[in-house]
Amino acid sequence: MVPRGPNVISWGVILTLTASRPDPQIPAGDLGFLLHKHPERVLVSEQGAVTTHVLYPQNTPDACTVAMILEVDPVGLVRTARKDENSVLAQYVNDRPYAASSLLAVAIGRTFSTALAAKCTSRPDLVDVRWPLQLRLPAVPCSGGPELLRRLFEPLGWRVDAREVALDETVPQWGTSRYLDVDLTGEFRIVDALAHLYVLLPVLDDAKHYWVGESEIDKLLRRGGDWLATHPERDLITRRYLKHQRRLVLDALDQLGETVEEPEETPSRVVDRLVDHRRAAILAALRQTGASSVADLGCGQGQLLAALAAEPQFTRVLGTDVSVRVLRQAARRLERVERVELFQSSLTYRDDRLAGLDAAVLSEVVEHLDPPRLPALERVVFAEASPTHVIVTTPNAEYNVNYPALQGFRHPDHRFEWTRAEFATWAGGVADRHGYSVRYVGVGEHDETVGSPTQLAVFSKGAAA
Questions:
Q1: What is the pLDDT of residues 221-280, one digit of tens each?
Q2: Do residues 206 and 311 share a domain?
Q3: Which of 243, 257, 361, 408 places its Cα 20 to 30 Å from the Cα of 167?
């Protein structure tokens, strides 16, 4: 029995992990070496409003079970809650003391941090052993039901048995709750099993009890980097883990694998070819302008910057992005590349560092802005920075009919995608208002009916036109 304090609500076993003997030479009790928790002792650790108990109800040569129990002080949770909770009532009326959600994920991360780091100094031979495991979670809040739980765990190799929990067993007509009684079985390394729980428990609940900032991206990549990039529900996992904060989600997806403008169902060789064609078209247009100083506005991870720096014509190369994290990625990519300056800047606010350039590039940028923000971008780039030449690329919405599996826009962060006529209307208006001429180029494989997948516009000012 878990001891009770004055304000503490106790809950039963929230997680049990049972490991069977993985090899005739390895008794199941060696699990304790990996978890760094002795089977004959009860570990009690307190962190803020949560006290974690770890104990071994079973320890034989053939089977070893470790149980994790959380004691939660609900008053303590309220005292540490952020003011932006959904409601004051939600601070007091919630399932955090009872269910296997983000509180349990945090407890797993803190209690088994060494195991999650794949370290075992006393028995390093055990780290890569695949153990026959059974995980039991009697109360998992799941916004999506058993089907979502299967979609998340089965691609990782788990066998899933999920049972919906009744709202009240004595009143069956009330139906089921959002909670699942879950058994997961499979053969895994301990580090992988713990990482799956750490990442996916808050995803199932679609909520976290704490504020989510940029540090959460590092946690997601550290715990999910080996499997998340190829998971069929990668985007859903990333969105929910990061509480649907668009900027964080896009940064994380960029690090998991460069997001391109074409749908995921497009064969990778076609995607790669279009990215290459787009970059080549931009470089060709810049060469024709004779520009020597160039800025890539919204430079992302710096692929175009590296190509620009490789050409002697471009003696000054600048890269800007609103995301500090993405700029760090670009800095790592360009660590040994000379003549590249990187700095943070927003394309909707004036930045004097962008003035006086020969050329600027907006490659796959404008469609990520809400339409009401486009006049601000126009003012910053064409009126205030006012480079001699501006190159803009954006998807051609008409070409999307060639992607049968595509639903919606080509990228989850796109706010719009223009037809060729719509792009020409916008670009022509910008050119007229700011003294530029404009010409258009199709990029990628041309379709006689709908044009090319990417449309490119070259703006040139005055005598340079």
A1: 888 877 988 888 988 999 899 888 877 887 778 777 644 334 343 444 445 577 888 999
A2: no
A3: 243
Q: For residue 8, what are the contacts with CB-CB under 8 A and spacing of at least 6?
A: 51, 71, 72, 73
Residues sharing a CB contact under 8 Å with residue 74, sequence separation 6 or more, in sequence order: 7, 9, 49, 92, 96, 97
Is 302 part of a structural domain of the chain? Answer: yes
196: domain CATH number? Answer: 3.30.1610.20
Are residues 283 and 205 part of one domain?
Answer: no
Spatial separation of the C-alpha atoms in residues 444 and 431, rounded to whole Å: 25
Q: Is residue 247 part of a domain?
A: no
Residue showing tokens 């800007």 = 320
| Number of domains, the chain | 2
Q: Which of 189, 211, 233 is the last residue of a domain?
A: 211
What CATH number is attached to the domain comprising 327?
3.40.50.150
CA pair distance 182, 197, nearest whole angstrom: 12
Yes or no: say if 102 and 243 are a contact pair by the CB < 8 Å rule: no
Tell me whether residue 225 is in a domain. no
Segments forming the whole domain that contains residue 447: 268-464
Is the pTM value of this prediction over 0.90?
Answer: no
Residue 200 sits in the same domain as residue 324: no
Residues with pLDDT less than 70, the chain:
1-13, 74-98, 209-211, 257-272, 463-465
